[in-house]
Amino acid sequence: MSITPTKDSKRSSNDDLPLDEVDGEVGHAVKITTHDEVFGDIKEDGPNYRNVGWLGAVVLLLKSQIGLGVLSLPFALMTLGIVPGILCLVAIAAIMTWSGYCVGVFKLKHREVYSVVDVGEIMFGKIGREVFAAIYCIFMIFVVGSAVVGASIGLNAVSVHGTCTAVFVAVSAVVGFLLASIRTLGNISWLGWVGLFSIVSAILTVTIAVGVQDRPALAPTTGEWDKDFHVIGHPTFLQASSALSSLILAYAGVPTYFSIAAEMRDPRLFNRAMFISNAIITSIYIAIGTVVYYYCGQYVASPALGSAGALMKRICYGLALPGLYVTVTIYLHLPAKYIFLRLMKGSRHLTSNSPIHWAVWLSCVGTCTIIAYIIASAIPVFSSLVGLIGALFGTFFCIMLMGGMWLFDNKSRRHTDTSFGYRALFFINVFLVVLAAYLMISGTWGAVQDIIDSYNADGGQSAWSCKDNSNSV
């Protein structure tokens, strides 16, 4: 069981600690202030991995969601139509809130869980651990790749394509590496405030800007123009699937919830933080997506910050850049932290400040950064990359796995609990598993087709391109 450190425990715990618990300094005992099922003994002279309060958790949860998804929402609403789009958004929000609740409950029942990889091991043994580890790391690094693309778009917009886009992608990856090298989420939580203020300021600015302008930036500059606003859209099957995948990615921070809960001082408060963050996120998504699409119609840009003209695009991306880099930071930090914990588990260097600790940690962050850079360079189309991530990984980790977790933890009740409540929850979670499988197949198909179409289009984006990607839609 986890022991939350108190003022008294910090003064009195481990007064008789043996001298071999020293990190190499004979005669100087290191006091252990907390024992944790994930991090082991947390020492006074090492990093405190359990230092996130519930308010800090709200900020981290908000920033894990608001960053990429909100920038593609208006484009998704344009594809689906405003009414089906909002209904799908609310339905996905409800599903993701249930998934978040399942995370909080599962974490309290299985205190040793740090990430979805540990869930895989609990549910499916060692094979499950290895499969989940690969999928989890790939998913998180793909999100980093899309955030790096978003940051490169921002640099292109602010500088008016001051240099080759490939350079901006590399610069964004380096900045992400430097920020993600901060070792604990407690120390990153202040960046969450910065990122949250940054991205919300940017999307509010573009929302106000499109509302006061005569016409969207992408509409014809002179003459009549047709907004082509659809209450109900008429997308093809693949277009609708890709749009749904973008909506799923808007809530695809759910796999990060385990790590945030694991670094909270009191994980019992996680669900409080999660409910608050999801209510805020859904309100922002509905307001921003609806207003931007209403005023821009078919001329909405993706990312949405380019919808209000050249000058406003520069201003909005200038505001958004810190938030985009915080998204890179959080999603780069978490897979690197998982790999680091896996490599250093059981070692005294895990919670120390030794050279070995730093060398392994920086190597983990560096490796994840390089892979994310390759992904960002190879698939530089923002909307398509967002759709691919949402379909291929978001459906699995945010819907299918969470439904499976509930079924796993409640399997002993299957033949004994005949109550309506249990049976209803059982069928709901089975339905979520099946729904996630369908959305994964259809959404991935649609996103891959979008990427192929972009490569084949005249003037489309290509791998390691120098073309200005801030003008793409």
Automatic annotation (TrEMBL):
Keyword terms: Membrane, Transmembrane, Transmembrane helix
Q: How does it sit in the membrane?
A: Multi-pass membrane protein
The superkingdom of the source organism is Eukaryota
Q: Which Gene3D superfamilies match?
A: Amino acid/polyamine transporter I
Protein's cellular compartments: Membrane
**PANTHER family in UniProt:** AMINO ACID TRANSPORTER (PTHR22950), AMINO ACID TRANSPORTER (EUROFUNG) (PTHR22950:SF683)
Q: Which protein family is it in?
A: Belongs to the amino acid/polyamine transporter 2 family.
This one is known as Amino acid transporter transmembrane domain-containing protein
This entry's Gene Ontology molecular function terms read: L-amino acid transmembrane transporter activity
Segments forming domain Amino acid transporter transmembrane: 51-448
Region annotation Disordered: where it falls in the sequence:
1-21
User: What Pfam families does UniProt report for this protein, alphabetically?
Assistant: Aa_trans
One GO cellular component from the entry?
A: membrane
